[in-house]
Amino acid sequence: MNPQKIQLVGDELCILWADQSETYLPSEKLRKHSPSAENIGEKDIFGTQYGGNGPKSFPGVRIISWEIIGNYAFRPTFSDGHNSGIYSWEYLRSL
Asked: In 30, 64, 67, 72, which residue has its Cα 20 to 30 A from 81's Cα atom?
């Protein structure tokens, strides 16, 4: 389900969904749960984990901009420079 409206209020990302429900996500939580390989790592075909050992808390980080990816996702840019996490609408709702 795609959102109807997205905006920042303070340090929270606010999403109004098509069903009129609302989601409020603090920037720090979004950064912590970034689905990027840089943040969660990635596995090769043999199951060896690479990366994902970075910091797990990001105090004071804020969303400074974002872009909508097609009809399926959202990619924020954070104040620490991180911008490689692509959050599907389903993933955002699950957070």
From this structure: 72
